Amino acid sequence: MSQLTKWDRRYLALAKEVSTWSKDPSTQVGAVTVGHKKEVLSQGFNGFPRGILDSQARYNERQTKYKFVVHAEMNAIYNATYSGVSLDGATLYVYGLPICSECAKGIIQVGIKKVVIEKCKEINNWNESVKISEEMFSEAGVEMIIEDLYQLSLKTKNQ
Ligand SMILES: [Zn+2]
Fold first, then answer.
1. Ligand 1 centroid – CA 80 distance (Å)
2. Helix axes 101-109, 72-82, angle to 10 degrees
3. What secondary structure does DSSP assign to 13-73, as a single string?
4. Using an 8 Å Cβ cutoff, are 32 and 18 in contact?
5. Whether pLDDT at 5 is above 50
6. Alpha carbons within 13 A on the beta-carbon side of 73
7. What is the pTM of this model?
8. How far is the CA of 102 from the centre of ligand 1 (A)?
9. How far is ligand 1, taken at its centre, from the CA of residue 31, in Å?
10. Residue 112 has what pLDDT?
11. What are the catalytic residues?
């Protein structure tokens, strides 16, 4: 049985849509923050900072890309800051990749209380950074839900 409500699924679908806005040819991640009244507070996708040329050449050069890129989760946080919106008590929806430990720190510090991630292939190979995120979320009291929407839709079809 899914822990997700209809609204959770809608916001995961929105995060998936936002992920397609990324110009990174190999990885597209989308993040959406939502407030108590189910209102969208901000969105973000993985990309370079404003004013930094996001050329395919830079994306193709891995070391350059890793140094320049802002993760989707942090962009959602920065975009909220840009508009002066508090994320205290907000829920974060992420599509595309598990949350790294750097983003986890930002998520905790801005007061996000719940994180909903759609299960992706990389989530099966939990690396060290993701394990640290999980540990920090549990210690800081951030609820984390990993939802397998693909499995869910299969189950629904078979019923
Ligand atoms: Zn990250």
1. 17
2. 30
3. HHHHHHHTT---SS---EEEEE-TTS-EEEEEESBPPTTS---HHHHHSHHHHHHH-B-HH
4. yes
5. yes
6. 27
7. 0.89
8. 6
9. 11
10. 98
11. 73
